[in-house]
Amino acid sequence: MRDLSDTRTSLVDGLLDRVIGPIVDWIVGGLVAALVFLVGSGVLSRYFFNYSLAWSDELAGLGFVWLTLLGSVAACRRRTHMAMGFFPKWFGPVGQRRVGLYVNAGILFFLGATVVEGAHLTAATFDDKSAVLRIPVGLSYLSLPTAGLLMAAYVGRQAWWLWQRAGGWTATAETEED
Questions:
Q1: Mean pLDDT of the residues in the chain
Q2: 169-176: long-range pairs with CB below 8 Å, 24+
Q3: Does the pLDDT at position 74 exceed 90?
C-alpha cells in the first residue's frame, strides 16, 4: 500500500520545483534584463544628453530590491546560499543532523520575522506614492513577505526532509569543492 504522506510530499516537491521554482527563475531573469535596460538608459541619457531619467532610476531601485530577494529565493531553492559548510563536517551523522535542524529552525524563525515585519511595512506604506512614477511605495516592501514565504517553503521542506531521515547534513548542496 502506498503511503499518503509520500504522495503529499511529492505534490509539494512538484509544486516547489516544477511550478514555483521556474517562475521565480524567469522573473529573476526578466528583472536582470530590465535592470540592464533601465540602468543603461539612465547612464546613456545622463552622459550623452545631460538629462537624468528619474523614472529609470526609480524603476531600477524597485527592480533591484525585487531582484535581490527573489534571487535569494532561487539560491535557497538550490541550497547555494552563503553558509559555513565546514562546521557540520566536524560532527558525525547524528551531530550533523542536529546542526541542520538547528540551522533550519533559526532560518525559519528569521524568515517568519521577515514576513511579519514585511507585511506591516507593506501595509503602512502602500498608500504612500513614489516621487516620480507615483506607484505605491509598499511595492518595494511587498518583496519581503513574498520572498520570505517562498524561502520558508524551501527551508521548511529541507527541515522536514532532514527530520524524517537519519543521515548527516551539509550546509549547502554538494559541489566539487566539498
A1: 88
A2: 169/88, 169/96, 169/97, 169/99, 169/100, 170/85, 170/88, 170/89, 170/96, 171/83, 171/84, 171/85, 171/87, 171/88, 171/100, 171/103, 172/79, 172/80, 172/81, 172/83, 172/85, 173/78, 173/79, 173/80
A3: yes
